[in-house]
Amino acid sequence: MTDDEQYPDGLGTLTLADGPWTKSEAPEGAEFTEFGPLLVPALPGMQARLEIDPQRGEVGAVTVRIADCAVQLQVIAKRPGVSLWTDTRQQLLANLRRRAGYQQVVEGRFGAEVIATITGRTTEGGLVDAIMRFQGIEGDRWMIRAASSGPSVTVDGVVARMDAFLSRCAVDVSAARLGTDDPEPGTVLPLGDAPGEADLDALRAAAAADAAAGDAGDTPDAGAPGADS
After folding, report:
1. Domain range for 39
2. Cα–Cα separations (whole angstroms), residue 137 to 30, 54, 147
3. Calpha distance 184→145 (Å, rounded)
4. Domain count across the chain
5. Are 45 and 11 in contact (CB under 8 A)?
6. What is the pTM of this model?
7. What pLDDT, in 10s, does the model give residues 171-227?
């Protein structure tokens, strides 16, 4: 049984491509679902959720279900010819090392990635380990940052499925305004509204309420409540 059959995620059969691409370099005929500068493969059953940045009230990330895991995607501005992921990875490791758990850097499909086991407590007070996978995939002026979590996040078949999905994503440089009024390197670029009728005002209000209540959660980079597209 394949991972998409065991954990139906609506993405069908995914095969590895040679992306992620800058949109202008994507293969002819590639079809995307557009979230502003972030373009993900247009798959009819895709389950995606907006993540609202409560401080800016903007869509800061999109989370996609892959197998039994969630993959949070962000687009981050960078300088041409300069790696952003190297420094970002070191900062991430420093933050993770201040938490209970352990981390390792491994070589993956897109280069060095971080696998972290984070120890927390359940509402009943018991200890629980959560495994997360962090990737940084760099283009000339952009980086896609992927943070994955879920029961099978490090299982070979699920890892391959995630990588195949990421390899079919793209970044629209014109939508990100990269190359014109360049954002500061390391800036998380605001994403566009999801296709459909997501109530962004309600999402922004919920995200702001969560932030005010201190409910950001213990998981690094956990997104605010979102909406299925």
Report:
1. 3-85+131-192
2. 19, 25, 11
3. 16
4. 1
5. yes
6. 0.82
7. 998 876 655 567 888 999 999 765 544 444 444 444 444 444 444 344 444 333 333
